[in-house]
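Q: Focus on the shape:
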Amino acid sequence: MTDIPVKPITTSRFYVEFDGMTDKLIKSVQEVAFQGQVKGYEKALASTKGGKTLRQSTSAGFEENPNFTIEVYLREGDMEFYNWMQATMPTSYSSGSGAAGQGQWAKNRKSGAIVAYDPGDKEILRWSIKNAWIKSYKVSDFAADGADLAFETFEIVCEDIRRVAPQG
C-alpha cells in the first residue's frame, strides 16, 4: 500500500472572479449547492404476477439551478457587484419586494470561477461557473456601537458549476 500524504485544504485561501470583475475583497463563499431531482418513486408503476408492486425511480434533472452565496466587503466607490445585480433584476416588482432593476438578465449573465489556494499561493481547487446572475441582495447591519466591517451578500445562481482541474 502506498502512503498518500494528507494535505488538508484550508478554507481561508480562496478567491471568486467573474467576467471583468477581479480584485474584489471577498469575505466568504457559502453553500455551493445543487441537487438532483428524482421522479417515479411517488407512485407504483404496475402490479406484477403474485401481486408484487413494481416501482421505478429515475433522474429528472435538477430541482433548481446551482447556486451559492458570496459576501463582499463594501469599499467606497466600488459598486460592480451591486450594479450587476441591478442589471439582472426585473423592471417591475410587487409591493415590498425591493427596487426595480434594469431587466437585462439575458445579456448580463457572467461566467467565472471559485478558486482555492495552498499556503504557497498555488491554485489547488477550481470550480468553473457558467452564465451566473444575482438572485438576491442584502447589506450587513449598521450599528452605532458596531465594530465590524460592512459587507454585501449576494446569492448567485448559474446554469452550470463544475469542479475542474486547477489552472497553472
Q: What stands out?
A: The chain has one domain: 14-164. The first strand starts at residue 14 and ends at 18.
